Amino acid sequence: MIRLRFDKGGGLLPAVAQDSVSREVLMVAYINEEALQKTLETGQAHYWSRSRNELWHKGGTSGHVQHVEAVLVDCDEDCVIYLVRQEGGAACHTGFRSCFHRRIDGDGLITLGERVFDPKEVYGT
User: Fold this and answer.
1) CATH number, position 50
2) Is 107 within the bounds of a domain?
3) Residue spans of alpha helices (H) in the chain
4) pLDDT digits (tens, 9 = 90+) for 88-111
5) In terms of C-beta density within 10 A (0-12 exposed, 13-18 middle, 19 or more buried), how is residue 39 classed?
6) What residues have CB less than 8 Å from 48, skipping those under 6 apart?
7) Which domain holds residue 60?
8) Which of 10, 53, 70, 118 has its C-alpha lying 20 to 30 A from 3's C-alpha?
9) Number of domains in the chain
């Protein structure tokens, strides 16, 4: 197993999902050692869901799988970037391509872009 500094983050490391071609940042999540191992074994992004306290296969419910083409490790070995090919056109559970679809403008937020899918149809919530 690759030795990353999971000890620095209480067993979790931030993982940035970045489009492998455009380099657009799609999302940030967390991984534990199991999630990293599953990602390396399957070639599909796995994360640790802090809200559900469980392993999470990205796209397992929505079908919007992230195919991991490379995993980059920072100099401190406490953060990774997954370079991904995003299936389904959207990484964000709210239906946008990127989770970073809003910009601060004064004291408010401006939404950038359009939804790729309706989350109610995909997740039923």
Assistant:
1) 3.10.20.810
2) yes
3) 33-42, 119-123
4) 889 999 999 999 999 999 999 999
5) buried
6) 12, 29, 30, 31, 32, 34, 35, 54, 55, 56
7) 6-123
8) 53
9) 1
